[in-house]
């Protein structure tokens, strides 16, 4: 029996985020049909990219005017698409947006939800996710008419599978798109093209206690510009008020899977390691050769990051 899989596509300035393609690759399986759920975008422009990764149906969801930033309205619109197209498995990215949206969908539908998945078996309804600070990998079997999954960005490399897709609009009943008790008062607009999100980054350079103060994080930012990288931080740096929480990598921060992770002045506690252990390559810079990060990396430099990083930036 054919299973319909819905994939909530995240966009950045009208373009598909690269991390979506890994999610699509992860969800592909035999006896499945892939539905890309696209919200408030020009689906015609996105069609070719989605087709190249095996999408056969592009669901065009247009929200009512003025409701584009309301996650409750967005969740209800997606639920309408799920029901219209008989979708039994829904995937979205475990990003800030996904963490806001997917639990709402699961709650409204009373459906099981697993976040931060890095492996999916759609035929057996099995998923894998890390637990206990990354000490173990849990394989979970889900049951229910509709299953909701949050996929860890960069969990696997995207792999193309060319096909052809049709664009299908979904009609929304605005009477059902009611957001009781929730109203968006103001939205702070940022130019995402100038900032690389931690969850989406291929390269991350992070700082910890060894950065010594907030001003020294500018050293990492300058290097990150040359590397087209995102800047992260340990919990120590966040708790000290040097950088905002949005930059925190770890068990209580963002869980990331970049191709390269550069840890600068970070001791490498179990909590921090849990958030970046799935990185493709880990490079550590630390003055303490006995720091935990030194035994949990691919390459290390026993040196002061405040001296090494400016020199690296010059070379780049």
N-to-C series of helices and strands: EEEHEHEHEHEEEEEEHEHEHEEH
Describe the biggest sheet?
9 strands, mixed
Which fold name fills CATH's third level, the topology of the largest domain? Rossmann fold
Q: Which CATH top level class of the largest domain fits?
A: Alpha Beta
Please name the CATH architecture of the largest domain: 3-Layer(aba) Sandwich
CATH superfamily of the largest domain: HUPs
Strands across the major sheet, in which order? 9-8-7-10-6-1-4-5-11
Helical segment count: 8
Helix content: 25-40%
Q: What is the straight-line distance between the termini?
A: 53 Å
Overall pLDDT level? 92
Taken as a percent bin, the fraction of beta residues is: 25-35%
Radius of gyration: 21 Å
Choose one word for the global shape.
globular
Structural class: alpha/beta
Low-pLDDT parts are none
Q: What is the number of independent domains?
A: 2
SSE topology sketch:
Blueprint: E1 3-8, E2 11-12, E3 15-16, H1 19-27, E4 32-39, H2 43-51, E5 57-61, H3 71-84, E6 89-93, H4 96-109, E7 113-121, E8 126-131, E9 136-141, E10 147-151, E11 166-169, E12 203-207, H5 217-227, E13 230-233, H6 235-239, E14 260-264, H7 270-276, E15 281-286, E16 299-302, H8 305-315
Helix pairs in contact: 3-4, 5-8
Task: Walk me through the structure.
The model has no long low-confidence stretch (mean pLDDT 92). The chain has two domains: 167 residues, Rossmann fold; 121 residues, TPP-binding domain (Rossmann fold, 3-Layer(aba) Sandwich). It has eight helices and 16 strands. With 316 residues, the protein is an alpha/beta fold. Strand 2 and strand 3 form a beta hairpin.
